[in-house]
Specification:
It is a single chain. The chain is built from 19 helices and no strands. With 502 residues, it is mostly helical. It has one domain. Helix 2 packs antiparallel against helix 10 and helix 2 (20-52) packs parallel to helix 11. The longest helix has 51 residues, at 221-271. The chain is globular.
């Protein structure tokens, strides 16, 4: 096939018609499989880095992470979702969006670097200035990566995204460990990890796609105007939520010191793993699927239910583990120096629990073109988070965490109602998976707490294994008693067995 025809195939989805459900099912299975591997790996890598680098040094990098996260969200401008959601795209359009992302990435990278000086004054720690400057490079690289990821997600080429992400994850972690062991660079190893992660990913995807954007001189903002509008609403939503979330780390850094910031940020990072590795990753499979079913309410509702229940099977067991055994997780993963993280992590278990449903609601509004509604909901959510954090910080770190998590859970009724009002889904269809999830998870959590109370004295590692086995057994039972889940499990087993025999 000529090169230009291969290139043009990147921007089409008509060849996927008729195979969407099968590709979507395989994509979801692949994402969930990779998500489990990534979560296990990141728990392990966190354990290693927590022992090599003390909490106070983690805190130095944590103070800069909110600015970097916000800058990444601003530079991407929601254009990944805009490309996935559009029915038709062209090489010229995606090239224009690539250069738009790159320009924003450069601007916000420089802005993050410039913020290093006032940040040092704000936190009372001059070490953060060069950290801000170095993390600016990560902002630029993440912005340039956005359209490559969008093209693959639109084509449902999930395996390439996940493999690339895994290689980047392993490579950046290996470099960070080597930097500590060989050169004893302390917190700079964490900075190196943050920069190498998007760099490795970007290089791999360039070689995989073999797509080079057109010259920036040929960029046409007129052609990209509709995508920029959709992306703008989505970006404002993401940025508003990110700003509110980041406020908690900033407040901790300002009021409670670097050690508390390190403990808080590490707990927040672990609690966010299911959101990043499962919920966000699954958007790569379900967003294109939902977008193609906008005009079929029955199929749209079925896919919504499927997407929420499948995500819940991975996220909720992790939530229960963090809620009922945070002390064991911290003791084994992070070590005795991090014991202050245990109560924080226990409350932060609500973060992944609500992310499944909040994420699903945002995907529905996005694919229905209701990006302004989504943006407005972000303003309300951000306001709730800001009030909770500022009020809670007047007491202590745990109170702040409790109120912060409560604000995230309390936004769910608003999101459910908005989806019911602005999509083909009924309120019952939107909320049913939520109530089913809670109805099953609550007894499992109580069962685990009762089991821990009855267990004889044993090591933390052995007790954690028992808890994990009990949670997994409960969710395996859930799969077996649900005909649809059981059928999908059997199909997956047969497919894997066929590949092994082949």
């Amino acid at each position: 096939m000529p090169r230009h025809q291969k290139r043009d195939l990147l921007f089409r989805t008509d060849d996927l018609v008729g195979r969407g459900d099968g590709r979507l099912g395989m994509a979801a299975v692949l994402i969930l499989g990779f998500a489990v591997i990534k979560i296990v790996f990141q728990f392990g890598s966190t354990a290693v880095l927590a022992r090599l680098i003390p909490p106070a040094e983690h805190g130095v990098v944590a103070m800069a992470m909110p600015a970097m996260a916000m800058a990444v969200a601003l530079s991407q401008f929601g254009l990944t979702q805009a490309v996935i959601q559009r029915r038709e795209i062209t090489h010229e359009l995606v090239s224009t969006l690539f250069w738009f992302n790159a320009a924003l990435g450069l601007f916000f990278a420089l802005l993050v670097a410039a913020l290093g000086f006032p940040a040092a004054i704000f936190y009372g720690d001059p070490r953060v200035t060069p950290v801000f400057a170095a993390l600016g490079l990560s902002v630029l690289l993440s912005a340039m990566l956005a359209q490559y990821t969008a093209l693959l997600r639109r084509r449902m080429r999930v395996r390439e995204i996940e493999v690339s992400g895994m290689i980047a994850l392993f490579g950046s972690f290996g470099a960070a460990v080597a930097a500590v062991l060989i050169w004893d660079v302390g917190y700079w190893a964490l900075v190196l990890q943050q920069v190498l992660l998007p760099l490795i990913n970007f290089v791999i995807l360039i070689f995989n796609l073999r797509w080079i954007p057109a010259s920036p001189l040929r960029a046409s903002l007129a052609e990209a105007r509709s995508s920029l509008k959709v992306g703008g609403h989505t970006a404002i939503y993401s940025i508003t939520i990110q700003l509110a979330h980041s406020l908690s780390t900033v407040v901790v850094g300002r009021m409670f010191g670097d050690a508390a910031t390190g403990a808080y940020y590490r707990s927040l990072n672990l609690a966010n793993l299911p959101q990043r590795q499962v919920v966000s990753a699954l958007s790569g499979a379900f967003l294109p699927g939902l977008s193609r079913l906008q005009d079929d309410p029955v199929a749209f509702a079925a896919l919504y239910k499927r997407m929420v229940t499948r995500t819940d099977l991975i996220v909720m067991p992790i939530t229960i583990l963090m809620a009922t055994a945070a002390d064991l997780v911290v003791a084994i993963l992070l070590g005795p120096d991090w014991s202050a993280s245990a109560p924080i992590m226990a409350w932060m278990s609500l973060l992944p629990a609500q992310s499944t449903f909040a994420g699903a609601c945002s995907w529905v509004l996005l694919t229905q073109g209701k990006t302004k509604v989504l943006m407005d909901s972000g303003f309300v959510t951000a306001g709730m988070i800001v009030v909770a954090v500022l009020v809670g910080a007047q007491f202590d770190l745990i109170t702040m965490t409790v109120l912060y998590m409560a604000s995230l859970v309390l936004r769910l009724p608003m999101l459910f109602r908005l989806v019911a009002q602005h999509s083909s889904l009924s309120l019952r269809a939107v909320t049913a998976p939520f109530f089913i999830s809670i109805a099953f998870a609550a007894p499992v959590a109580v069962m685990v707490l009762g089991l821990r109370a009855l267990l004889p004295a044993m090591s933390s590692f052995a007790e954690l294994l028992v808890v994990i086995a009990a949670i997994l057994a409960a969710y395996l039972l859930r799969v077996l008693i649900d005909p649809a889940l059981r059928r999908e499990l059997l199909q997956m087993v047969r497919r894997m067995a066929g590949k092994v025999r082949g």
